Amino acid sequence: MSYSRPSAVFGLVMILISIACQTPAPTGLSETDKAAIQKVVDEAARIGNAPTKDWGAYVRAYYTEDAVVLPPNGPAVQGWALMEPWFAAFPPMSDFRPQIIEVDGRGDLAYVRGTYSMMLTLPGATEPINDTGKYIEIWRKQADGSWRVIRDIFNSDLPVAAPEPKAEEIK
Amino acid sequence: MSYSRPSAVFGLVMILISIACQTPAPTGLSETDKAAIQKVVDEAARIGNAPTKDWGAYVRAYYTEDAVVLPPNGPAVQGWALMEPWFAAFPPMSDFRPQIIEVDGRGDLAYVRGTYSMMLTLPGATEPINDTGKYIEIWRKQADGSWRVIRDIFNSDLPVAAPEPKAEEIK
Predict the structure, then answer these.
(1) What is the pLDDT of residues B109-148, one digit of tens each?
(2) What is the third-level CATH fold of A26-156?
(3) Is the distance from CB of B73 to CB of A159 less than 8 angstroms?
(4) Is residue A61 a contact partner of residue A47, using CB atoms and an 8 Å limit?
(5) What is the pLDDT of residues A112-171, one digit of tens each?
(6) Interface predicted TM-score (ipTM)
(7) The CATH number of B28-157 is which of 3.40.50.620, 3.40.50.2000, 3.10.450.50, 3.40.1190.20?
(8) Which is nearest to B101 in space by CA: B117, B83, B118?
(9) How many angstroms away from the CA of B157 is the closest CA of chain A?
(10) With an 8 Å Cβ cutoff, are A21 and B16 in contact?
(11) Chain B residues near residue A21 by CB distance under 8 angstroms
(12) Which chain A residue shows the shortest CA-CA distance from B163?
């Protein structure tokens, strides 16, 4: 027997290993993962729409402790400790409806693209407007198997309010 | 020899397969993938900053054909055919500087969080302003190994312009 010729058993083992170890093509999220994400969205919306809004509970239900929120017309907000007062300072809001349009991911990392609708009373306004917009979130599966948002960015569909006419333009 | 007792060879094969098939922990992007993404960003910025901006080349260098851009204060824009006129109608822009803050991914899917800076001449304005903002993009590795953006959302850091005083408030 020559050392340069693998034995039949060794060859068989290598063939079996190569069959058993076929790397699966990258696949999307499981239905279980998608359902877990939807459940977190539903729970956050429930908290956000409660008559007395517990933003401490909201940020903990939805985001990881060091998550980053990227709101329009302001700087990034990172972490529960800064998120909670940021949400508390948000203009009065009701009927918040987030809607997942698509969710995809690999392993423990996923993204969600969605739309939102909410009634929003802007500073100085007496009546709420119906704000609609869109968002992308990055989600991360946690050690306990739950999912949380680690990055969140959104913007409004509504056009920027037309500027009031300047005083000198008024005849 | 009993059929209910696996042979030593069979046992050895199963042990070897189980060792060889250890699922690796999910890992981030390779340095090669990160460099490939940065190269696409640099090329797009080069096209976007050219004196004569070729938005057809820009969208093809940066996005997949069915990518979705989610701009502030307007609806989603999907696909090269709609993106190109959307970029062409963008207010005059120069010195566009995208900056990747972080990039992470699994397999053929990645996200980028970044910031941008650009000189932007808004409708009705005579002087450009320095707009800065932030973005999240979802990137997908293509069949040829290159990376392109499939989803893109951004917003400005700048506060919404304070409304001009109303005519009746001017004494």
Answers:
(1) 999 999 999 999 998 999 999 999 999 999 999 999 999 9
(2) Nuclear Transport Factor 2; Chain: A, (3.10.450)
(3) yes
(4) yes
(5) 999 999 999 998 999 999 999 999 999 999 999 999 999 999 999 999 865 444 444 444
(6) 0.82
(7) 3.10.450.50
(8) B117
(9) 4
(10) no
(11) 17, 20-21
(12) A163
